Amino acid sequence: MDHKRPILQLSHIGKTFEGGLKAIADLSLGIGEGEFVSLLGPSGCGKSTVLRMVAGLLQPTAGIVEWPGGRPELGFVFQEPTLMPWADALANVRLPLQLEHVRRDEADARAAQALARVGLAGFERAYPRALSGGMKMRVSIARAVAANPKLLLMDEPFAALDELTRQALNDDLLKLWAEDGLTVIFVTHSVFESTYLSSRIVVLTPRPGAIGADIAMPPPHGRDRGYRLSPEFADNARKVSDALRAAMERRP
After folding, report:
1. Cβ contacts of 128 within 8 Å, gap of 6 or more
2. Which of 70, 105, 134, 239 lies at 20 to 30 Å from 143 by C-alpha?
3. 3-state secondary structure of 173
4. Which residues contact 140 (CB under 8 A, 6 or more apart)?
5. How far apart are CA 38 and CA 19, in angstroms?
6. CATH class of segment(s) 1-72+154-252
């Protein structure tokens, strides 16, 4: 990991749910400003639980979540777009700005700009029922970035999409990350997606989740279709796949 200014520190985090299900055990992880970190692991290993504890949607039962420079503005993109079906795209993206009491004209302008940045200029008045799955996810991403977050949390946002749409959204996400200087924590179960997107991949073991590997990747600036087809990408994906397989063989 490059020595970047720390934005987040998880120290000896544990999470046990009611009924005794132990999801996370003694997990410590630091995230540096500007990193693109993927949490990679099989379903049920606690990736989403970690993300929700970072967001404050869940409280750890052990350990502490620390913000060395103060808690930054957060954006959260869920696996499902979670759009309001009765509101058009502009109104959906405007919602977090309304909650911050931004003036209506400014909120509309920022929401329209965010939609344009994800390729949806001209769809401001479209309702979710008229949008494809990929377009709905673009609206969800626009909503998350409209409030100018410093940290973007993403919980398997592209898992339900076809491969071409997924690749296009991967490229758009990297562009937003670079342009806005975002720090991103991205949950995925895809070796290839994590290899393509990340500056760092944290592999979790089967439940209770712990860190099985922490892999530094080449900086993802300028990645494109050529990189996806390159021997370098294949070698990196193989290294990540091997680390995931080793983590899967670990037992608490």
Report:
1. 81, 83, 84, 85, 89, 92, 136, 139
2. 70
3. helix
4. 77, 78, 81, 82, 83, 157
5. 29
6. alpha beta
Sketch the domain layout of the chain as residue ranges.
1-72+154-252, 85-149
**In one letter, which amino acid is 137?**
M
pLDDT tens-digit readout, 67-113: 998 999 999 999 988 899 999 999 999 999 999 999 999 999 999 99
Q: Is the pTM of this model over 0.85?
A: yes
Quote the tokens at residue 209. Answer: 């989740």
8 A C-beta contact, residue 37 and residue 199: yes
137, two tokens = 């996810």
- pLDDT band at residue 51 under the 50/70/90 scheme: very high
> pLDDT per residue over 35-50, tens digit each?
999 999 988 889 999 9
How much of the chain is helix, strand and coil, in % rounded to 5?
Answer: 40, 25, 35
Q: Which residues pair with 9 in a beta bridge?
A: 30, 66
Length of the chain measured in residues:
252
pLDDT of residue 251: 54
Distance CA 153, CA 19 (A): 28
Q: How far is CA 86 from CA 90, 128, 153, in A?
A: 12, 8, 25
